[in-house]
Amino acid sequence: MLKVELCIGCTACANVCPFDAIGVADDSKRIIHFSPENCGNCSFECNEVCPTRAIERKPDKITLEFEYAYCLECGRKMMRTKKEAEYYAQQLLKMGEKVEFAFICDECKMKKISSVSDKYEGYLI
């Protein structure tokens, strides 16, 4: 069973499926196709790896489309969906971290980190 409303399009399930029953296509949107007819005798790895617990036992036959997130700093398409970014933002919020990092690409994060470290002037002994 697939709880569509919980799926964030992260593709973790597809990455662990030993039978390629979960396919992913990336274009202007991320498309995930669940093909339960391809499921074999497995340990439901897709269930275990899903961060939102959207999959229970064998998934339904369905195709889902997800919009990509775009970096708030540079505007480039990120390799995560909007729903993924929103999920990560909630996780960051729970940890007391900066929520905006969920919506910034890795390159822009590195620039932010290095600009802070460039301003540091160590103490001379």
From TrEMBL:
It holds the Pfam family Fer4_7. Keywords: 4Fe-4S, Iron, Iron-sulfur, Metal-binding. GO terms for molecular function: 4 iron, 4 sulfur cluster binding; metal ion binding; oxidoreductase activity. The keyword 4Fe-4S applies. InterPro entries: 4Fe4S_Fe-S-bd, 4Fe4S_Fe_S_CS, Fe-S_Ferredoxin. The keyword Iron-sulfur applies. Residues 1-27, 30-60 form the 4Fe-4S ferredoxin-type domain. Coiled coil: none annotated. This is 4Fe-4S binding protein. It comes from Thermococcus paralvinellae.
